[in-house]
Amino acid sequence: MAQLRTLADRQSPEREMIPRVLLWAMFALAMITLAIVSLSVLTNRPHVGVPPAATAVQERWLVLEGKSAQAVVVRDADGTLLMDLPHGGFITVIQSAMARARLVAQIAGNPPMRVVRYDNGRLVAEDPATGWSAELYAFGGDNKAAFERLLDQTK
User: Fold this and answer.
1) InterPro entries annotated for this entry (predicted)?
2) HSE of 85 in the Cβ direction (CA atoms, 13 Å)?
3) Closest alpha carbon to 113 in 69, 71, 147, 153
């Protein structure tokens, strides 16, 4: 009978998988984060990650239609076909992100989005239907250039 061990004698698998010190560290991290954010809100600390204000120097309204995981069709706001891309690359990424924002906001249809170039060099894709936007210059030169070509393309 000495060989039989009761459940109380065995260590539970949960204690072996997540050490108690790690649990306390995760709890402390969450509480410290909450304290920092609360202090920031209570003291009205200015937002530092907000892009500087600038004047729009060029804009274009576009309709992005996703055809598959890679394909995208780009139309002008009046419906004129600008590009039919079987491998849209970064344009497809932006179209997918905007489509997701529209799904969450329960926006019906596919209203046009706006691509704006500002005088300080910022290039932004904005969706007025949802308030979603993406700072296109932050994704690298090649990705920014894809939207600059759309912006500069003549009608």
Assistant:
1) PuhC (IPR017495)
2) 21
3) 147
**Domain limits at 90?**
56-152
Is 19 domain-assigned? no
CA distance 124 to 60: 11
Tell me 104's DSSP state. H
Query: Would the CA dihedral through 124, 127, 131, 132 be positive or negative?
Result: negative
Q: How many CB atoms lie within 10 A of CB 154?
A: 3
DSSP 20: H
Nearest to 87 by CA among 66, 103, 107: 66
Q: Indicate the number of domains in the chain.
A: 1
Model confidence over 63-90: pLDDT tens digits? 999 887 888 999 888 888 888 888 888 9
Predicted confidence (pLDDT) per residue in 80-139, tens digit: 888 888 888 899 999 999 999 999 999 988 999 999 999 998 999 999 999 999 999 889
